[in-house]
Amino acid sequence: MLLAACDHGETRSAQQGDFVAHPSVSKSLDDLIARKIIGSPEEKLGDGIFGPVKLQILRAKVDGTALTLVYPFGGAMCGSGGCSLYIVEQTAEGFHIVGKTSQVKLPVKLPSVGNRSRPSFSVFVQGGGIVNGYRALLRPQNGRYPSNASIAPAERYEPSEDEEILIDYPADLDQ
């Protein structure tokens, strides 16, 4: 028997041998994206210069880790400084968010610095008041990632030429 907490705070006593899931854990990545990242239907559409802009979701599994990067863009989820990058970890219990970093523009790259099981990521930062764009390093601290790519603990970073691109804008996207 599986007992999972719901978002309304309802609980019941677990019987011996029951598995109790943490309330922020989702059974599937799609469920986590729908419930914890997208949220309301209003987030799916936004106003663009030429009409409504539909939300698109990019995702990339980080090889050799239990991590998946999720980058929703378009719709009402982004601002002039970019969108939020979600770092999702899969455990035996399910999927949960271990990082949500705002002020992110693509591409997201995998630098050669950091721990392989909990790697650092580099992202582009520009807009939201930042005129001269730069790359920022998102280094995990205490199992979590920085909440904003434009302020500490994120740091300016000079990327190497051989960094692997994990997520980039689709080739057919007009920017």
Give me a quick take on this structure.
By secondary structure, the chain is mainly beta. It is 6% helix and 43% strand. The chain contains one helix and twelve strands.
**N-to-C order of helices and strands:** EEHEEEEEEEEEE
- DSSP summary, beta strand count: 12
Q: What gyration radius follows from the Cα positions, in whole Å?
A: 18 Å
Label the overall shape.
globular
Percent in strands = 35-45%
Q: Helix tally?
A: 1
Give average pLDDT, whole number.
79
- Poorly predicted residue ranges: 1-22
- Domain module count: 1
The class by helix and strand makeup works out as mainly beta
Give a description of the structure:
The chain has one helix at 29-38; strands spanning 2-4, 19-21, 45-48, 51-54, 56-61, 67-73, 83-91, 94-110, 121-127, 130-138, 155-157, 164-167. Helices cover 6% and strands 43% of the residues. It is mainly beta and 175 residues long. It has one domain (25-167).
Ordered list of secondary-structure elements with their pairings:
Layout: E1 2-4, E2 19-21, H1 29-38, E3 45-48, E4 51-54, E5 56-61, E6 67-73, E7 83-91, E8 94-110, E9 121-127, E10 130-138, E11 155-157, E12 164-167
Parallel strand pairs: 1-2
Antiparallel strand pairs: 3-4, 5-6, 6-7, 7-8, 8-9, 8-12, 9-10, 10-11
Task: Describe this protein with a few key phrases.
175 residues, mainly beta, eight-stranded antiparallel β-sheet, two-stranded parallel sheet, globular, disordered N terminus
